[in-house]
Amino acid sequence: MPAASAARGAFPPGGAPARRRRRGLPLAGNAGIGILVIVALAALAAPNVAPRNPLAQTLADRLMSPGTRGTHGEVFWLGTDGLGRDALSRLIYGARASLAVASLAVACSGVLGLFLGLTAGYYRGWVGAVLMRFVDIVLSIPFLLIAIAVVAALGPGLEHTVLVLGLTRWPRYARVAFAQTLAGRSREFVEAARALGGTDVRVMLRHVLPEVLPSIVVVGTLEIGLMIVYEAALSFLGLGVQPPTPSWGNMLADGRAYLATGWWLATFPGLAIMVTVLGANLLGDAVRDRLDPRVR
Amino acid sequence: MGRFMAGRVLQAVLVLWAVSTIVFVIVRLSGDPVALMVPQGTPADVIAQMRHTLGLDLPLQVQYLRFLAGLARGDLGTSYVQDAPALPLVLQRLPYTIELTVAAFGLALAVGLPLGVAAGTRRGGAFDRLALPLILIGQAMPSFWTGLLLILIVSVRWHLLPSSGSGTPQTLVLPSITLAWLSLATIARMSRSAVLEEARRDYVRTAHAKGVPPRRVVVAHVLRNAAIPILTIAALDVANLLGGAVITETIFAWPGMGRLAVEAIQARDYTVVQAVVIVGTAIFVLTTLVTDVLYGLLDPRIALAGAPS
Asked: Residues of chain A with pLDDT > 90: what percent?
């Protein structure tokens, strides 16, 4: 939807298109990158950044509110949970699950969708028709219901979450890759490469793929935020990352039990999800406006 | 038109078949249900007898055909835990989910559409600049967090509304706001861009030029044409609402289909999980089908061009 891009910053208020083509990303996009970088650094350096062991329980320090001092004089900036674990440390370690699942899921579904879309678009004919019909079908499956069923059957856990997300989210990439391949395939330099006797695989990878890749990157960045939310949702339902390993989703599920006694337990993990998803969405929108305004 | 509809119906049937098959495979992957049903140390011949009664000793392809035949008759198997047919168990909970989803959808449309249109018609105005960040933040808030925050503030702090239960109008308020939240942001955003897209068309300029009052231009010209993309997004959102209902129902202890699914997973009652997934898919497919047919009637160009992209 081209209007979406026109709506967001590409045109100044008043309607005239911007004369100067900006280099780099707009402010919002940079803010998005900033947020994601901070969260990623926190996740990677969790053992160094987290003030305490996220699993260490101190029953004397149960349900301390944020900013209070524990029995050993240490400050719990975000309070403690019902088992006396430091909420801030758990929040920092929780970023690991979110980012790991989100990046792996985007990578898996992106590669799968790219491969299928590229193949379908390149060979067209019945291969393309069958593959794209299949995409239509998978796209119209209510995804969360299937995810719940799969994880329920295979058993909960991080790997299964990635598997489910990877196997159900590829059609969006496939559809975009298909459209871009159809367009790229008829370009003259592709014709030339074929006329020079380039093999199908070579033409696809060396000449068509570079045409398709930007749109796939756009879809991928737009999907990151969604994947973070879905991971948290599955963990919230007890189907994703399993306790005691902290993840934002299962921390929220914990916090649900303490709504009346510990407001902070359900507040901060959600805030972390919101800020991270906001960062991912800002980046996604900016990358889309920059690389490919055609992708919705 | 007839061909278009036939294609749509065929696709709907294909989706239902595909989902049923996926669920069939998943349930078979999850292991032997009999092992979950009987206490440990049950004699082998009793287990064999049970497997025979349930038809689990048949070859897989025969089981699959029997499953499809059952599906065609509306028989989705028997709940292992409650020892009752699975479909009625699900259908019993269905009205609650429909009530919640319809309330949420209505709310999202009633608030999101005017919000987006107001922001779009005065692009760059004070309202637009205020609405856009709000929409972005709204889209980043996961529904399970929104729900917990609402309980925290409205129920725990202010004691205004109950945090769980069903049956009275008050109990519907918080769950429907929670479920509507994300769709509201999406619908607002899409209506804004749809209005912007239409507003720069020639016919709008013509309308302005011949002196049509601005309000009438928006309502009678812009909105009419912006309605189709907005409707598309809204209809696609029904899938998100159904998925979101699982979470919302869990948070608010709402006795719908989604909570049944979560309970069934915890009890390892896979036939019920299977039934929920199939019924949920059927509802979703039906909604999409109805929307598609409505488009065909609203805008003949779509039926002629084939599938809406």
From this structure: 24
